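Before the break, one more example. Copy the sequence into your notebook; we will annotate it together after we see the structure.
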Amino acid sequence: MELTFGQYELVYNAFSLGIAAFLAATLFFWLGLSQVSDKYKMAVVVTGLVTFIAGYHYLRMFDSWGDAYTAVDGVVTSTGVAFNVAYRYVDWFLTVPLLLIELILVMSLTRSETVRKAILLGGAAALMIALGYPGEVSGGIDSTRLLWGALSMIPFLYIVYTLFIGLSESIARQHENVRGLLNTARWILVLSWSFYPVVYFAPFVMSLDGGQAQTVIEVGYTVADLVAKVVFGVIIFMIAVRKSQNEKA
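Here is what the structure looks like once it is written out:
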């Protein structure tokens, strides 16, 4: 695959930004545990775990990108070593279910409701990632990618339905000063996740291939990851802090 120097640098710097943002967010969440009550500590621990896992996998992708290409005097050359896209999907397979569990844990649902929703939503999220992977590694922008991408949209739509219909009553029961944050959290989650299929199908719809497709996919996924994990995580942390303050008051 041929890349221009600009495309190579854009992906390289996007991975670098991801590493810094995810690891900094992990420190922020875990060092802030003292600001939340015991009831919400697990939600914040999981939030930091998500960004830690993402930071690790972005470090591996950063190294894999450097192994796959060399840039000398503005000329990018393929080394013959394949860029490992599996790192991203392993990351998603672990972190995407945990993102939903973060939201569930911070809502203070009953134990049975927490377990049920965690299993259903977490399972749907894992299935969504598993179905998208064959299309990502199919080796081209073709009908195979389109088919598996369409299949992965089925559990995604179930998750969206559950977040906006299944959790509406539970959110309505929350304290008024966290209700808005919970609504913001689910909107951020749904909108950022909606960006993934946009990136997934973009090369197909726009007839991109080679370096253009690779750049759009890697940079697009990185932007979506930063919003879905760092920005969403900050909202979860704010909810945990505010709920802790409410209980003390």
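The chain has a mean pLDDT of 89. The first helix runs from residue 5 to 31. Try to locate both features in your own notes.
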